[in-house]
Amino acid sequence: MTREELLEKVRTSRPSVTVVGLGGAGCNITTWIADKKLAGGKIIAANTDAAHLSTMTRADKIILLGEKLCKGRGCGGFPEKGAEAARENLAEIKEELKGTNLLFLVAGLGGGSGTGAIPVVAGVGREVGALTIACVTIPFTIEMARREKAREAISSLALVCDSIVVIDNSKLREIAGNLPLKEALSVANALVGSFVKNLTDTITQPSLINLDYADLRAIMERGGISSIGIGEGDGESRIEKSVSQAISTPLLDITDISNAYGVLIHIVGGEDMTLDEVAVAGEQILEKIPNTKRIIWGAKVDPSLSGRVRVMAVLTGVTCPFLSGVPKPQPIPAPQLPKEVVKPLREAMEHMARAQDSFPRETISKAAVFSKEKQDVKNAPRTSYRG
Ligand SMILES: Nc1nc2c(ncn2[C@@H]2O[C@H](COP(=O)(O)OP(=O)(O)OP(=O)(O)O)[C@@H](O)[C@H]2O)c(=O)[nH]1
Ligand SMILES: [Mg+2]
What we know:
Layout: H1 3-13, E1 17-22, H2 23-35, E2 41-47, H3 50-53, E3 61-64, H4 67-70, H5 79-88, H6 90-97, E4 102-108, H7 113-127, E5 131-138, H8 144-160, E6 163-168, H9 169-176, H10 181-204, H11 213-220, E7 224-234, H12 238-248, E8 262-269, H13 275-288, E9 294-301, E10 308-316, H14 339-358, H15 366-378
Parallel strand pairs: 1-2, 1-4, 2-3, 4-5, 5-6, 6-7, 8-9
Antiparallel strand pairs: 7-10, 8-10
Helix pairs in contact: 2-7, 2-10, 5-7, 6-7, 7-8, 9-10, 12-13
């Protein structure tokens, strides 16, 4: 294959990413993402409120939802109306999402437009075969009625999304300090926005450690409720400190961190960040979340971050007291490996199993265990998992 052919292959094999912001908060988050320049993804802002939508000058496409039903005036906090409005634009939404491999849906739950529309658009994502990830915030504890609406929306989302990344605004306030409301909402915009941007960048751009679409699919597909934590640090053991902070301060109250189904770690550091430092972070996660089935990580250099590192940890398949009634996605069947790799891999696994029997667990290279898992996941056929 010539270099030109290879470059063409890279270009055409790149996954197609679409980010859809729904309702006021969702659209504001897409503006944050567009300001930071999303590499290789399309941004759509959709709302029932024409005045708010007219300020979305950075989106690639705007969709006024439910023009007949809402007449461009919003839906006054009624999610049923938001859902009906989205159904009015179903054909247009389907057309826009055609060919999308990775779909991020962002919304602040608790109002009418975003809360009602997000499960409808997620259903379209599933229909077109995209890995569908919802990233939502739930309202502050004082907004009791709004929180209840958010819980119902998450229950509906669980039936049609692969993963639902949930940020609890109340938890955010606890961690970020008692910020004035407007600032707290900006922090939430930045958090959801950087989650979407970091993941999109690592799979569409060359990074220090690349995450590819198959990696992401392996961890987020049927991942269920997921939480995010962030950490930042400098000086000695900066990655260890930041990973520890990111894992121990999730932005959603979760029951038992050690039982998370999967973990995705994304690290951004200055040009002085080394691969060794990143590898240590992997070992540390295995210690903290011993029951996890899948761990993946990506790392990117950002020259403006000299001396510092920023870590984002996404824990998938977590349980959360507030969302206890939300249905779980179906478990993923064990990966089937292609015939040609089955034998050598099975031998390696048997060898590892023997080693585990005869040595204390601590002496086994954790990196080896991790690579095996990652290999299993990477080789698994993906299409059969979708329902
Ligand atoms: N992150 C973030 N959250 C917001 C913002 N504005 C509001 N919220 C939160 O999101 C929830 C829903 O608000 P909106 O997005 O304005 O509601 P909507 O979806 O437009 O619904 P309607 O206006 O009722 O049609 C609120 O209860 C707040 O908790 C914002 O700019 N950023
Ligand atoms: Mg609104």
